[in-house]
Specification:
single chain; alpha/beta; 15 helices; about 60% helix; disordered N terminus
Length: about 325
């Protein structure tokens, strides 16, 4: 789904610029670069940085030569939110990048921080477009491409049924395609999608996540067990948990404002801003970090890294609910 806007396909070039607000595509752009770097050097040093971690002068320190001369990947998320002083440092770096360091700038696009966006393009950055999908036809195209990427066939009716059942979230759609291709042999048709997802997957997985981020552990566990008993794929539940926690983190770090303004800034619908505001009571930055680690561990567990996917999910739900109550304790 993500498309290159420049002719360069050098994943290890000095600068990669990922532009857009679709989290799945932004994360894939990052993973692609990191995977290439670690293929070239297993000891690659990866630094994943928020805007507030890039202070004036810190970029020079991060890009200074290493004693062991290992390759580095520096990821700067929400680059449009960098301070004016930090933007100046990044622009200076773009003029003279350091060998064996790949700088990955994630930028939402738009007017905010446009000077940095223009400077990166002028410097010849490899660019990856990560636009948010807003139309059903775009989501249908995405699902078809996911099946093709995995080397599997799905009927047009199956692709449409998956979009109708899962909804608008690309992470959910990608997880569903992965689950179907792992579980089902041969061509995937509408009947298979109906058995897995129709009318239940999105509602039940997000119900688990909503209860967990609200700190209601018992209700979240009850919803989890019901979802699993009705056949909801575990990867959809970890995806919903991750989205719920990330939404808390995004809104808690955003400046105050009307729901409509925040919706434009964060890429969420206004109704979701109101819901997340209610859910974020009790959350702290440490709680968000703890919850994201727990969800990442569960995601690895349900994808083959553990012996008991259900236990991995239960553990994550409890951890998220506990993190949601850190400020109250």
């Amino acid at each position: 789904m993500a498309t290159r806007k420049t002719s360069s396909d050098d994943l290890l070039g000095p600068v990669t610029l990922a532009v857009g607000q679709e989290d799945l595509l932004l994360d894939r752009a990052v993973r692609e670069v990191v995977a290439a770097a670690r293929a070239a050097d297993a000891d690659t040093d990866v630094r994943d940085l928020a805007p507030e971690q890039i202070q004036p002068g810190s970029l020079a320190e991060l890009t200074s030569p290493s004693l062991f001369a290992e390759r580095k990947v520096l990821i700067v998320r929400n680059a449009q939110d960098l301070s004016a002083e930090s933007v100046k440092d990044v622009k200076g770096y773009l003029d003279a990048p350091v060998e064996d360091i790949t700088l990955v700038l994630l930028h939402a696009g738009g007017a905010k921080g446009k000077g940095l966006l223009d400077a990166a393009r002028k410097a010849g950055a490899r660019e990856v477009a990560c636009p948010r999908t807003t139309k059903p036809a775009e989501r249908l195209t995405f699902v078809r491409q996911e099946f093709r990427t995995l080397g599997r066939s799905a009927t047009p009716e199956a692709c449409q049924a998956l979009v109708d059942s899962i909804g608008s979230d690309l992470r959910e759609l990608a997880s569903a395609v992965t689950q179907l291709t792992a579980d089902v042999d041969g061509t995937i048709d509408e009947a298979v999608v109906g058995r897995y997802y129709t009318g239940r997957a999105e509602a039940s997985s997000f119900n688990v996540a909503d209860r967990a981020v609200e700190g209601r552990a018992a209700e979240a566990l009850e919803a989890l067990r019901w979802s699993l008993s009705t056949g909801v794929a575990p990867v959809l539940i970890t995806s919903a948990l991750a989205q719920g926690v990330r939404a808390i983190g995004k809104l808690s770090s955003a400046r105050g404002g009307r729901p409509a303004d925040l919706a434009r800034e964060l890429g969420m619908p206004p109704w979701k801003i109101d819901r997340v505001r209610q859910q974020m009571r009790g959350w702290t930055p440490d709680g968000v970090a703890m919850a994201l680690r727990a969800v990442a561990e569960a995601d690895a567990g349900v994808k083959g890294g553990g012996d008991d996917p259900e236990y991995a999910l239960e553990k994550a739900v409890v951890a998220v609910a506990r993190a949601a109550r850190m400020r109250r304790t």
